[in-house]
Amino acid sequence: MSEWFHNLPIWWMTLVVFAATYGATAIIYWTILRLAVDERARAFKALSPGMLPPLGIIFGLLVGFVAVQVWNEFDHAKAAVVNEASALRSVVLLAANLSLEEEKELRSLVSRHVEKCVNEEWRAMSEQRATLILPPAPMVEALQRVLAYAPSNDGQRTAQREIVSALKDALDARRQRIVISQSSVNSVKWTGLLLQALITLIAIAMVHSDSRLACAIALALFSTGVALSLLLIASFNRPFTGEISVRPDILQQVMPDEAKPKNGL
Q1: pLDDT in tens, 127-165
Q2: Which residues contact 255 (CB under 8 A, 6 or more apart)?
Q3: Which residue ranges of the chain lie beneath pLDDT 50?
Q4: Residue 166 to residues 118, 120, 162: CA-CA distances in angstroms?
Q5: Looking at residue 185, what DSSP letter applies?
């Protein structure tokens, strides 16, 4: 789906999805009733109503198949951001065991990384143009500084190992969220889902073509279910895009109010 659609507020997205679904349903209703005359009317009526449940089940299975992918990726995106924030917070806390100068530098580098994530990477991920080509400079510098640091006691040696591990975890979590930001329901799945919905709606209209009221009610009920299913999938389709998306709030909590280094108190 296009960029403008995914960035719509949820109520506008709802309006677009339901309007498009009901519009397509109205066209099907009008077309089938216009065609249901003479021989075609008898042919439509001869269609067995027993074909409707299998068609509905197939549509339900397709919705479930696509929805599981979308919601799993959304959950993984949230988990990646939480893991990155947790690892960065560990770096900030453990840095208090190093020298004052080193602590200040690490806190500054973590703060720069968070700022870059919030101000640059999140927009790039929402537009699906974030890549792993260039590593985050503040994190690379922080890792190099910690590895080059010469600890003076056992506490600093332990802190150094833990900080290196936390930085690696943060980099890994960042890679995961960027990879996930590229994910979305591809055109093949959307096409299959929409075609199955279209086929089912046409079958419903044909089976009930002898009664305008029954046909309208049946189509309205099923099209409402179709619209709701499409809306739920579309609103979660891109984990970092749109009103319902993963936000960088928890990353911003890593450096609350730019608190002073503990060693400086």
Answers
A1: 889 999 988 999 999 999 999 988 888 989 999 999 999
A2: 92, 107, 110, 111, 114
A3: 259-265
A4: 20, 23, 6
A5: -
Nearest C-alpha neighbor of 82 from the set 237, 253, 256, 257: 253
Task: State the Cα–Cα distance between residues 140 and 161, nearest whole angstrom.
Answer: 16
Locate 77 and state its tokens: 């995106």
**What dihedral do alpha carbons 188, 193, 196, 200 form, nearest 10°?**
-160
Sorted by sequence, the CB contacts under 8 Å of residue 193 that are 6+ apart come out as: 59, 62, 63, 66, 230, 233
Q: Phi, psi at residue 107, to the nearest 5°?
A: -65, -40
Write the single-letter amino acid at 17.
Answer: V
Q: Would you state the pLDDT for residue 263?
A: 45
Quote the CA–CA distance of 160 and 154 in Å, as a whole number.
10
pLDDT digits (tens, 9 = 90+) for 225-264: 999 999 999 999 999 988 889 999 999 888 755 544 444 4
